[in-house]
Amino acid sequence: MNTKEAYKTFGNKRVVTLQTSILELVPGLGLQPTKRWLTRGELIL
Fold first, then answer.
1. Closest CA to 18 of 8, 29, 30
2. pTM (2 decimals)?
3. According to the 3-state scheme, what is the secondary structure of 5-39?
4. What pLDDT was estimated at residue 10?
5. What distance separates the 2 farthest-apart alpha carbons in the chain?
6. Which sign does the torsion angle of CA 25, 27, 32, 34 carry?
7. Are strands 13-26 and 7-10 parallel, antiparallel or unpaired?
8. How far from each other are the two terminal CA atoms of the chain, in whole angstroms?
C-alpha cells in the first residue's frame, strides 16, 4: 500500500489506514503472514 492509498482526506478529516499482518509459525515454512486486516482511524493534528 502506498502513501496515497494510506492517507486520504475525508472532508476536513485525515483518515489513516494501516495494514496489519499476523505472523504464525507454519510447519516446514517458519513464520508466515497468515492473517491480514486493515485498520482505519482518524488522524487528529
1. 8
2. 0.34
3. HHEEEECCEEEEEEEEEEEEEECCCEEEEEEEEEE
4. 61
5. 49
6. negative
7. antiparallel
8. 22
Could you list the pLDDT tens digit for every one of the 45 residues in the chain?
455 555 566 666 777 888 888 888 989 999 988 888 888 887 766
CB proximity list for 31: less than 8 A, separation 6 or greater: 23, 24, 25
Domain limits at 9? 3-23+32-43
Q: Which of 6, 7, 33 is nearest to 20 (CA)?
A: 33
Secondary structure (3-state) at 1: coil
